[in-house]
Write a structure and sequence with these properties.
Elements lengths: L13 H39 L2 H20 L4 H8 L5 H34 L7 H13 L4 H8 L3 H24 L3 H28 L9 H35 L4 H7 L4 H23 L3 H38 L7 H10 L8 H6 L3 H54 L9 H22 L5 H24 L23
């Protein structure tokens, strides 16, 4: 019994479980590949630009990239996520029209952002940039890039996960080529910015062609203005939440820029997200989002909770060991990838990576699927306010370590608020709204394995590369043994396998 209602079995036999499990794994893998490529771009860019640019150019470029990241995330108002909710409800003749009109809407939003940055360019360039025109150009890059955010969401909404991954992979190659080549040729910060502008233009034109070719039909019908209004109304609270969440990720960096400007380049490296850890929860959520939406639209809270628990139990055994393992080898990774010049940011990097231990799912996905975007906005606002206070005070008093500690605490508080809202969505207590036992078991197993690996390897004179390999080997062995024994427990088994419905099921809902 779940919430007083009888749990509906999703798969009736072993063969069905295997088929649906494979479907979940395939969708998760495809989305993870594409999104990992997008996130990896930030890391690869940092590694390359730290080595290719001088310290002053890297500080200026890192500052501009933080504006670019904020603009391309906040500027969408998350309207593209409304595509996942609304597109399956349309007949095929209207789908391309909805996506293209949404892209036009985002291009207009981007133009407003570019205008705002043009006005603010003199103020933003003070003390960090030698040329205010770089801020103007970064605004243009943001404006051109925003519409392409609709393309992968349209592919996911229509069950074209392979095309979504292909779009992300191609975009990654373009961005890396257009930014690293100018930096390597000595073009400096402005060369990197010009490269982002060129990529935005190519992705805008390519996105229009890709959507028209993929979703276009011989008989195309327009979408009504009313649907676009509904999409915007649905997305605005979500967009505010995403904007606030993005500010939450950047505000500690801007505090460092204000209070410890000499450390900004180091902190920009330490405080970035690790690609695979950042995208796995999103990928798993994308794999079941249509099922979750269908369950909520059927008012079947028991089935929706089954999908959710299946996701969190499955991803805990993957995300938690990866996060703890990266914390373990952080000293070696930072020195090997970014040279000893970034060693001052090791503790901050470890703290930020430790935060990802709880990110075994995209928590906002449940609230979006249930149409409770206002709750998502509340969670984001509470987290941001807490982070402003704690990270700001930490940066002022203790620099990079203080800022990262404040962000860790604020993230934990935000997590608890999110879990409270999710429990309310399922109409159950918080203790039943998450796979707590599975998650805690994975944390304990990974933590013990990390301590053992650290104690075993520390006395050995292996050098950076040798210590990295040895730590991972001992840690992997410990986690493997621990998880194998844990999986024998009945509590380690997820609920019935998730069935991914055809998009056509939602048409006319």
């Amino acid at each position: 019994m779940i919430g007083g209602a009888k749990l509906r079995l999703v798969a009736g036999d072993v063969a069905a479980r295997r088929r649906t499990g494979d479907g979940f794994a395939r969708r998760t893998g495809l989305v993870a590949i594409g999104q990992a490529a997008v996130k990896a771009t930030q890391v690869v860019l940092s590694i390359a630009l730290v080595r290719l640019l001088g310290p002053d150019d890297w500080n200026a470029t890192a500052f501009l990239l933080s504006i670019y990241l904020a603009g391309t995330t906040i500027g969408t108002l998350n309207v593209q996520h409304g595509i996942v909710f609304f597109l399956p409800q349309l007949e095929s003749e209207r789908r391309a029209s909805l996506v293209l009109r949404t892209m036009a809407m985002l291009l207009g939003m981007g133009a407003l952002i570019a205008l705002g940055l043009t006005v603010a360019a003199p103020a933003l360039s003070g003390g960090r940039l030698s040329d205010a025109s770089a801020v103007v150009w970064i605004g243009m890059a943001i404006a051109l890039e925003l519409p392409s955010a609709c393309v992968p969401m349209a592919m996911i909404a229509t069950d074209r996960f392979g095309k979504a991954a292909a779009w992300d992979l191609i975009g990654t190659v373009l961005i890396l080529t257009a930014t690293i080549v100018p930096a390597a040729s000595g073009a400096g910060t402005l060369g990197v910015v010009y490269g982002l502008v060129a990529v935005g233009a190519v992705r805008l034109v390519g996105g229009i062609w890709f959507v028209d070719r993929t979703l276009g039909t011989t008989r195309r019908l327009p979408v009504g203005r009313q649907l676009l209004v509904h999409q915007l109304v649905y997305s605005i609270p979500l967009g505010v939440a995403v904007a606030v969440a993005m500010l939450n990720r950047l505000v500690d960096k801007w505090f460092i820029a204000a209070f410890r400007s000499g450390d900004f380049g180091v902190y920009a490296v330490a405080a970035q997200e690790v690609p695979l850890l950042a995208v796995l929860p999103y990928a798993g959520g994308a794999a079941i989002v249509t099922s979750l939406v269908a369950a909520f639209q059927d008012d079947d809270l028991a089935l929706a909770r089954t999908h959710w628990l299946h996701l969190t139990m499955t991803m805990s055994a993957v995300v938690v060991p990866m996060a703890v393992g990266l914390v373990l080898v952080a000293p070696e990774v930072i020195r090997l990838l970014f040279t000893d010049s970034m060693a001052r940011g090791i503790v901050a990097f470890q703290l930020f990576t430790l935060v990802t231990v709880h990110r075994v799912a995209e928590y906002g996905m449940v609230l979006r699927a249930a149409g409770r975007t206002r709750d998502l906005m509340l969670v984001a606002l509470c987290t941001l306010v807490t982070n402003l206070v704690l990270a700001g005070a930490g940066a002022w008093l203790w620099g990079m370590t203080g800022a990262s500690v404040g962000t860790v605490i604020a993230t934990g508080i935000g997590w608890m608020i999110a879990m409270n809202r999710i429990a309310d969505t399922f109409a159950i207590p918080v203790r039943d709204a998450f796979a707590w036992r599975t998650w805690l078991s994975c944390v304990l197993i990974s933590g013990v394995a990390a301590v053992v690996a650290s104690l075993v390897v520390a006395p050995l004179p292996l050098g950076l590369g040798g210590a990295l390999i040895a730590k991972l080997a001992v840690f992997g062995l410990g986690v493997g043994v621990g998880l194998r024994r844990w999986r024998r427990s009945p509590s380690s088994r997820p609920p019935a396998a998730v069935v991914i419905p055809e998009a056509s099921r939602l048409v006319g809902t």
